[in-house]
Amino acid sequence: MKKTGQPVRSEHLLAESDGDREVWTARRRRASLPTGAPGPDETARRRPTLLVQDLDVVLGGRRVVSSVSLELGPATTVAITGPSGSGKTTLLHALAGLQAADAGHVRALGHDLAELDVEDLSALRLAHYGFVFQSADLVPELSIRENVALPLELAGARRSEVRSRVDALLDELDLQECARRRPDEVSGGQAQRAAVARAVVARPAIVLADEPTGALDTANRDVVLDLLLDQVATCGALLVLVTHDAEVAARCEHQVAMLDGRATPLVGAAHA
Ligand SMILES: Nc1ncnc2c1ncn2[C@@H]1O[C@H](COP(=O)(O)OP(=O)(O)OP(=O)(O)O)[C@@H](O)[C@H]1O
Ligand SMILES: [Mg+2]
User: Fold this and answer.
1) pLDDT tens across 124-166, in order?
2) Pocket test for ligand 1, best of 57, 90, 245 (most atoms within 8 A of CB)
3) 3 CA to middle of ligand 1, Å?
4) Is CATH 3.40.30.10 correct for 11-263?
5) Could you tell me the pTM of the whole model?
6) Cβ neighbour number for residue 185 with a 10 Å cutoff
């Protein structure tokens, strides 16, 4: 299996290892975007959004994700739970191709992630994924507003569309007051809400969120969860979120529990 390289940090969701937005944008223009968003035809509708088969990930000589298989359809919500160190973040990274598989396969919207080169993998992520990192991982040089707008701008959205969509999210998540500040000038909860806004701003088909409510009070937790669930309801997205919060997990349609790298079978039939 072809490796996709080192584990990739947040900025690689938007820009590859050089972190240079202009270079990345130029690359994106050159690269032909892999297609595969759920289309109107019946075949596309029936295809699982994410298909994970016998996935292993080895880190530091230890199998931290072990024989995980999942079939997840569109318009589905899945909570991944489990103790610290059980492999939740590593699995989520593997679902986005941010962490290479050592065995097994991850297919997203029909694409085997291991068969995509770095540029196509980046293009697939930009077009179809939203990712909330466990540590928010906003781009430090950009304001909160610019961070939220970034996926739409990289996708070439019109300026008016960017402005209205970003404003709506900043309003909904109570971020207008800090929109012009940089990530190191806002609270942990504000940064986390901005990371959630960035993940959904371009209405991706796949939203992966690593403890998206971990730094939030109950009221903000519910606002963020509503926003993520709304993405599923209105766009038919697949939402996979990692959480230690039983109330958050209970609001998802399906649950997967991880222990020592192994995942329980999905509770419920996510892809009926
Ligand atoms: N780069 C690395 N090299 C070696 N081991 C690693 C590396 N990254 C993570 N691990 C180990 O892999 C295991 C799984 O880590 P992971 O971050 O996926 O756990 P987690 O379930 O997300 O935990 P938490 O709930 O604390 O976030 C842990 O034992 C961790 O120490
Ligand atoms: Mg984690």
Assistant:
1) 999 999 999 988 899 999 999 999 999 999 999 999 999 999 9
2) 90
3) 19
4) no
5) 0.85
6) 12
